[in-house]
Design a protein that fits this description.
single chain; Nuclear Transport Factor 2, Chain: A; two-stranded antiparallel sheet; 4 strands
């Protein structure tokens, strides 16, 4: 996959994340993906488990991408996020 394709995939991922489109949001992950939250020590293994953990959250989330940088097999997205308690942002 070329760098333009990677950037497009990341843009699709974050747009879907912002729209709470769980199907498209999780297309980017491999079946054996590992999601780690260093602040809590939580680890979620597998695309379907990552999706299930996010679907189960009662909060609506919004993301604003500040920048995406990367090359080769290392890419970083800088973003801000906001979560609401049980109701969507309007």
């Amino acid at each position: 996959m070329g760098e333009n394709e990677i950037r497009e995939a990341l843009n699709r991922h974050w747009a879907a994340s912002d729209a709470n489109d769980f199907d498209v949001e999780h297309d980017i992950y491999r079946e054996d993906a590992l999601l780690e939250y260093p602040q809590s020590g939580e680890r979620v293994k597998g695309r379907q488990n990552i999706r299930a953990s996010r679907v189960a959250q009662p909060n609506s989330k919004r993301f604003k991408v500040r920048r995406i940088v990367g090359t080769g097999d290392l890419w970083v997205t800088e973003f801000s996020s906001h979560m609401t308690a049980g109701h969507p942002i309007r």
